[in-house]
Amino acid sequence: MAGLSFDNYQRNAFLASQSHNTPKATSTGTTIVGVKFNNGVIIAADTRSTQGPIVADKNCAKLHRMAPRIWCAGAGTAADTEAVTQLVGSNLELHSLYTHREPRVVSALQMLKQHLFKYQGHIGAYLIVAGVDPTGPHLFAVQAHGSTDVGFYHSLGSGSLAAMAVLETNWKQDLTKEEAMKLASDAIQAGIWNDLGSGSNVDLCVMEVGKDAEYLRNYITPNVREPKQQSYKFKRGTTAVLREVEIEVYQEQEIDISA
Amino acid sequence: MNGIQVDINHLKKGEVSLGTSIMAVTFKDGVILGADSRTTMGSYIANRVTDKLTRVHDKIWCCRSGSAADTQAVADIVQYHLEVYTSQYGIPSTRTAASVFQSLCYENKDFLSAGIIVAGFDDKSEKGEVYSIPLGGSIHKQPYAIAGSGSAFIYGYCDKNYKPDMTKDETVEFMKHSLSQAIKWDGSSGGVIRLVVLTKSGVERLIFYPEDYENL
Amino acid sequence: MTSIGTGYDLSNSVFSPDGRNFQVEYAVKAVENGATSVGIKCDDGVVFAVEKIISSKLLVPKRNVKIQTIDRHIGCVYSGLIPDGRYLVNRGREEASNFKKLYTKPIPVSALADRISQYVQAYTLYNSVRPFGISAIIGGIDEDGSHLYMVEPSGTCWGYKGAATGKGRQAAKAELEKLFDRSTDGLSVKDAIKEAARVIYIAHEDNKEKDFELEISWCSATETNGLHKFVPENLLEEAIEYAKEQLEGYEEGDSDDEAASSDEEPATGDADGDVAME
């Protein structure tokens, strides 16, 4: 039969739980948040990508565009968040072309949760979905198993506890856009500074009713590398020449590469 | 499975669960559904204002407990079924809705952890009905039903204090007291108390904050 | 009625240039030669009756049952190719069972008739199948009262107060129309049994040389507790007696018409006369 087979999943998980050397799951540390404000919604993310204890990328992008005005912040397995977000984004565009309507956030949400539920958590995507559509601004959180939550603010990823602490203390009803941007970036910074899995910069995306989405890549860069005090370039001639060999050119041919 | 017995619910850990206190009570004018609002991921509260009362038809709602993903998926499918049913045969009965829930829960019992209470108001008979569908997919028609981890603490209270044909205010008070105790003694329950009242006059949502229910 | 198919009649799913499906029309022919069936809808129930031509003296009386029950509350009678009808009823039973399994409530008659007609219609679309050679009268009781439908080989499904199909349908329909004109304030199922018997006896007049047995069933909120059942022996006898009684009067009054109508369907066995039945 075509498709992925999970026949041995439970057996393997059971055997793994019995033995001492359990294979480690690739869980990528992240902090992502979403905050609603009086006329729209904001999502934000840090930019650290990790592979175990190594920082794989100091400035990666965790904010994904699913439609011009529906964006998604992803935590969990990086490959999965990227793939699922692109798949749903693509289907959303086809659906929008077919119906001659702007895509809706609830459509994106339903497509995501049905896809993730089908894979029973094996697609490790934890997402904060946000956007504006003809019915107004929306903010949702989706878990890998396919459950969804509605709320005025959300945080996800390894830094979600740090971020939630900030959100819970500073959030209030009817935030302005500027207040919401400050709150979201503060929450991400709480992750950047206090969570080992998160770090580097803050990416932000503002979706306001009646306006184009504003993607603010590296909205805050609190970890700029100091310029080096000295140049570490080696001077010409640093390497000593020990031996020289002269090779005669056997044949020469001109090739026209203009075409 | 290769002769190895595996506890499915144990292996599925790590997913979001509704360690919950839910209930639904019939009364004189209809039926009321109630729930706490806590969603947990292990020891972390993933959502403290969850809405576990879900609409599957205008006047047929359900209380969800167990896995959030599973119960949401099941409720979505039932909602779809009832929408099709309505366009083909007219308004479904609560019994019919509960029956669709049951077939999904029973036929997929090996893959689901869902404990659901279905409650609805029938405009024709002007009566409220409650059906409880616990883990295995059996179905039980009851005057009132309680479920979820918190329900263990209030069996006695509910049994002593439930009366048939209460007024709306009496029922709301009964449910507030019951869920308050469930939340108090169950660590996996908490947040606010949400109620949905289904009567002839329509659907009404009520919310009670900790300061409203903690010191009754 | 049917013109020569000129090649357009060999396959299902092919229209003739003037927009006809000959295979369906041939199926209707099979129905037109079948034994007469009628259904009557009353306020509190429905009645089915069918003429059973005794094609052999060796057949055991009362042991060859034609009317079938699809679900406890729904009955069905049909004219045409009997095995096609049995197959369709089986399908109807599946539909009824699926509905009850999912929704824990008996299938509404309208829903069942609709599902069956959709199934019948599908058999006019594909090359590998032929249409059903029957017209089925489906009726019963549900929460909205009594219902009667007739499904034809094309998949058409209409709701009726009185339905008739098979060889004697013209006479039967005329009688049913007269019946509903007369009793405008509604008929009881008990009366309908007698009338159904009478209609079958009248419809049999054109086919007098063959003996027949009468079968009647009913489904009523008041008489059968909403279940589809065969009528008790005494009521059947009573109905047959009434029918015969009425027939004598009918024969005296309409003796002129009889000669005229015998032109329409010649008694001398024509080529396609015996294709369909028994």
TrEMBL record, chain A:
Cellular component terms per the entry's GO annotation: nucleus; proteasome core complex, beta-subunit complex; proteasome storage granule
Gene field: TBLA0D01750
Molecular function GO labels: threonine-type endopeptidase activity
Active site: T30
A Pfam family matched in the record: Pr_beta_C
Record-annotated Proteasome beta subunit C-terminal domain positions: 222-244
SUPFAM superfamilies per UniProt: N-terminal nucleophile aminohydrolases (Ntn hydrolases)
GO biological process: proteasomal ubiquitin-independent protein catabolic process; proteasome-mediated ubiquitin-dependent protein catabolic process
Organism: Henningerozyma blattae (strain ATCC 34711 / CBS 6284 / DSM 70876 / NBRC 10599 / NRRL Y-10934 / UCD 77-7)
Cellular compartments annotated: Nucleus
Highest taxon of the lineage: Eukaryota
Subunit text: The 26S proteasome consists of a 20S proteasome core and two 19S regulatory subunits. The 20S proteasome core is composed of 28 subunits that are arranged in four stacked rings, resulting in a barrel-shaped structure. The two end rings are each formed by seven alpha subunits, and the two central rings are each formed by seven beta subunits. The catalytic chamber with the active sites is on the inside of the barrel.
PANTHER family: METALLOPROTEASE TLDD, PROTEASOME SUBUNIT BETA TYPE-7
InterPro entries, per the entry: Ntn_hydrolases_N, Pept_T1A_subB, Proteasome_bsu_C, Proteasome_bsu_CS, Proteasome_sua/b, Proteasome_suB-type
UniProt name for this protein: proteasome endopeptidase complex
EC nos: 3.4.25.1
The keyword Protease belongs to this UniProt entry's keyword annotation: yes
From TrEMBL, chain B:
Pfam families linked to this entry: Proteasome
Any one GO MF annotation of this record: threonine-type endopeptidase activity
Any Gene Ontology biological process: proteasomal ubiquitin-independent protein catabolic process
Top EC category: hydrolase
Keywords carried by this UniProt record: Cytoplasm, Hydrolase, Nucleus, Protease, Proteasome, Threonine protease, Zymogen
InterPro entries: Ntn_hydrolases_N, Pept_T1A_subB, Proteasome_bsu_CS, Proteasome_sua/b, Proteasome_suB-type
Compartment list: Nucleus
Entries under CDD domains matching the protein: proteasome_beta_type_6
Chemical reaction(s) catalysed: Cleavage of peptide bonds with very broad specificity
Alphabetized Gene3D superfamilies for the sequence: Glutamine Phosphoribosylpyrophosphate, subunit 1, domain 1 (3.60.20.10)
Main location: nucleus
Active-site residue numbers: T20 (nucleophile)
SUPFAM superfamilies assigned to the protein according to its UniProt record, in alphabetical order: N-terminal nucleophile aminohydrolases (Ntn hydrolases) (SSF56235)
Enzyme Commission numbers on file: 3.4.25.1
One GO cellular component term: nucleus
Quaternary organization: The 26S proteasome consists of a 20S proteasome core and two 19S regulatory subunits. The 20S proteasome core is composed of 28 subunits that are arranged in four stacked rings, resulting in a barrel-shaped structure. The two end rings are each formed by seven alpha subunits, and the two central rings are each formed by seven beta subunits. The catalytic chamber with the active sites is on the inside of the barrel.
Name of the protein this chain belongs to: proteasome endopeptidase complex
Gene: TBLA0C06200
Automatic annotation (TrEMBL), chain C:
Gene Ontology BP annotations: proteasomal ubiquitin-independent protein catabolic process; proteasome-mediated ubiquitin-dependent protein catabolic process
Matching CDD domains: proteasome_alpha_type_3 (cd03751)
An MF annotation (GO) of this entry: mRNA binding
Entry keyword Transport: no
Region (Disordered): 242-278
Keyword entries, A-Z: Proteasome
Keyword Manganese among record annotations: no
Domain Proteasome alpha-type subunits, first and last residues per copy: 8-30
InterPro entries noted in UniProt: Ntn_hydrolases_N, Proteasome_alpha, Proteasome_alpha-type, Proteasome_asu_N, Proteasome_sua/b
Similarity field: Belongs to the peptidase T1A family.
Matches recorded under NCBIfam families: PRK03996.1
Protein name, UniProt field: Proteasome alpha-type subunits domain-containing protein
UniProt organism field: Henningerozyma blattae (strain ATCC 34711 / CBS 6284 / DSM 70876 / NBRC 10599 / NRRL Y-10934 / UCD 77-7)
Gene: TBLA0E00690
